[in-house]
Design a protein that fits this description.
- By secondary structure, the protein is of the alpha/beta class.
- It has three domains: 2-96, Orthogonal Bundle (Fumarate Reductase Iron-sulfur Protein, Chain B, domain 2); 111-205 and 349-408, FAD/NAD(P)-binding domain (3-Layer(bba) Sandwich); 206-346, FAD/NAD(P)-binding domain.
- Helices cover 35% and strands 19% of the residues.
- The strands form four sheets. The protein has a five-stranded parallel beta sheet with strand order 3-2-1-4-16, with helices on both faces. A five-stranded parallel beta sheet has the order 6-14-7-8-9. Strands 10, 11, 12 and 13 form a four-stranded antiparallel beta sheet that branches.
- β1 (111-115), α8 (119-130) and β2 form a beta-alpha-beta unit.
Length: 411
Amino acid sequence: MDRFKDLIAEAARCLDCRHKPCVAACPAKNDIPGLMKAVKNGDFQGAKALWDKTSNLPELCGALCQQEVMCEGACTLNKIKKPVRIGEVERGLALLFWGETDLPQTAIDHTHLVIGMGPAGLANAIAMAKMGYQVDAVDAHPRIGGAIWNLVPPFRFDANDLSSIEVKLAKLGVRVKYNFLVGRDAALSDLIDQYDSVFIAHGLDVPQLVPGFAGPNVFYAIDLLNRVRHSPVSLDRLVGRRVVVVGLGSVACDTARTFARLGRDVQIVYRRTLAEAPASPKEIAETLAEGIRIDVLQNPKSFASGILVCERTELVKDDASPRGRIVTVPGADLEIPCDTVVFAIGQLSSDAVFAGTGIVLRPDLSPYATSDPKVYVGGDRIIKEKRIVDAMVSGIEAARLIREACTCGSR
């Protein structure tokens, strides 16, 4: 009962602004004022129904979205007091309706395959199944969630939230085959022949390599945080006492905090300033709170004999680069003694899944289109921002396109 009171009290703080800045700032365009009004009135079922119109992963968005730079950041109450804690209300509703989902009213004679069960794949599978399509899914990992399950540390995400989604998938009749890698266990061309439509959202599965940096003490965060490969015990054995993490996105912060919790002396270097960091202010504050030093305007130059050399950088205004152009400051190198260097500067999507098919992306038709009318793409491969909510939106939007194609016979 206290939980209900807390949700109602927080929702009641919403001003129901005329211009709805929180909705404009939400990539999913969730009706946040409408949700808050329903919760304030104790109509939790109505709130859920309203949310379901535009979002189907409240477990993930409520827990991991960077609300402070999106909906909460746009909240009018920032001007006078703390903004409405929209993320907490969303996750509270997700917990309240744990594992519950609306079932399709009719079954559609159309088989659909989802490749990759991260946020985009999950959103697409749920959307397609709720419309009545017969949905199968495959994932290379032993559990759904993609990078959220595999890379986000337990201290930042409760895996029980994934259990809620797994229950929903089971109720919707979505069959998931785990530890299944397209290209190894089956060719994409064969899978396409078996289904009426295919949605590919295998995420960012390979690190962005840095030329000139290699060796036993140089790692990439995507490999180190990989839950399938490493446990905390194995991580403890892999790295030295002094660790430098390169980058300042969410993965970099997660990596630094993971090693700080293993008792390491951790430092972050970043070639831009805090204002340009992909990580949210909240993530950066939490990282600093754990005693991790962040050195900005530093770019790694070389690493040898236990010394990471960084060149000093500065940002120069450039109309072609909104974040500023990076230039090197001559003669201002910084030497950092360390045992291990971990690069967390981004990941890329492998093209291995498309091997032998000749399929290419067709952004001229749609962000989700490919040269094969049966095959759609989504998730981080096509999303610039690489945020959970954007991945979810791509899965839902692709499902709508597939439905339209089934109805009219073409894209």
